[in-house]
Specification:
Layout (H helix, E strand, L loop, with lengths): L1 E10 L2 E11 L4 E5 L6 H8 L7 E6 L2 E2 L9 H4 L3 H6 L7 H9 L13 H16 L3 H7 E4 L11 H11 L5 H14 L15 H13 L5 E5 L7 H15 L4 E5 L3 H7 L2 E6 L2 E6 L1 H6 L4 H10 L1
Parallel strand pairs: 3-8, 3-9, 6-7, 7-8
Antiparallel strand pairs: 1-2, 1-4, 4-5, 9-10
Helix pairs in contact: 7-8, 7-9, 8-9, 9-10
């Protein structure tokens, strides 16, 4: 299970994510949709640790994969008299913390005043010691398929397939090749195993990219707009591969602009706009009767 808690991401003065909280259960297919620039890809890249949150945390199966956020742990907050004063009058809840963050009133340096600093550091070390998951393990468990394929151009399709299993997981070459052939066959690309990516169409590259991700046997697969770089006639072949994958029980999170596809394969639809999670609902509910005016306006434009 993936838990995103109070995730903020800033790029300088640009606020891309603003307090996103989201849970993805094992075996679920969750589609993240919304207008361009709403923070969808940044959220996905944060789950795979390609981006580090400004604030907030991400947990996988009860293990913390991002740096711990002291503002999400009230025992840490209470260790500071500075924070205690700021959170007086019953403001001991997540909503209050997020409000304070957005007003830029909360500063980590405040926790280092005099004797408070040692207790803060002790508590943060405890969180890291007991709950933290190594980045390399995270990336083995959470695979990602990018919109621009990211295949190694100087390696053949087969070499692309076996590189990570052999290098990262130390899988013997014979076993890695056998698994690669099985996966390439499942996406209709076995006959292209000895060619270089430059000779493939966009749809073929993306099918290889999906197979390459699966070669690491991840528990979760993230798809970042996997068809956005494809010509229209190539979209269906890639979506068909993802549809088949969705029936296997693997956990999937997709950022997509393909509304019909999202409606068909998803267990839940998450609508993200302006860096905020506006709606989170089953597809039959979201597409039939979205609760927010913003989601209604978006659907009116894209459906």
């Amino acid at each position: 299970m993936i838990e995103v808690k109070g995730l903020y991401k800033d790029f300088g003065t640009l606020h891309v994510l603003s307090g996103v909280s989201l849970t993805v259960n094992n075996g679920e297919v969750v589609s993240i949709i919304g207008p361009s620039g709403g923070g969808k890809s940044t959220l996905l890249r944060s789950i795979n640790l390609l981006e580090t949150p400004t604030y907030g945390e991400i947990w996988v199966d009860g293990k913390l994969i991002t740096p711990p956020d002291p503002y999400l742990h009230f025992d840490v907050i209470r260790s500071s008299r500075t924070y205690a004063a700021m959170l007086a009058a019953g403001k001991q809840d997540m909503e209050a913390i997020q409000e304070i963050k957005e007003k830029d009133l909360l500063k980590e340096k405040d926790l280092f005043h005099t004797k408070e600093g040692s207790e803060y550091r002790r508590l943060m070390k405890e969180i890291t010691k007991h709950d933290f998951m190594d980045t390399n393990i995270v990336r083995q468990r959470i695979g990602m398929v990018f919109q621009h394929f990211n295949l190694f151009p100087h390696k053949t399709v087969m070499e692309n397939m076996i590189y990570a299993p052999m290098t990262v997981k130390k899988v013997p070459k014979e076993k890695a090749v056998a698994k690669a052939k099985e996966l390439l066959d499942s996406v209709g690309m076995l006959e292209k195993q000895d060619v270089y990516p430059g000779t493939l169409s966009g749809g073929q590259k993306q099918r290889v990219a999906i197979a390459r991700t699966l070669a690491m046997e991840p528990e979760v697969v993230l798809f970042d707009e996997p068809t956005s770089a494809l010509d229209p006639e190539m979209v269906k072949e890639v979506l068909d591969v993802i549809k088949r994958l969705a029936t296997t029980g693997i956990t999937m999170v997709l950022v997509t602009h393909e509304m019909g596809f999202a409606r068909e394969v998803s267990d839940r639809i998450c609508f993200l706009d302006g860096g905020k999670l506006i709606e989170d609902a089953p597809p039959e509910v979201f597409f039939a009767s979205p609760k927010s005016e913003r989601a209604q306006a978006f659907l009116n434009k894209v459906l």
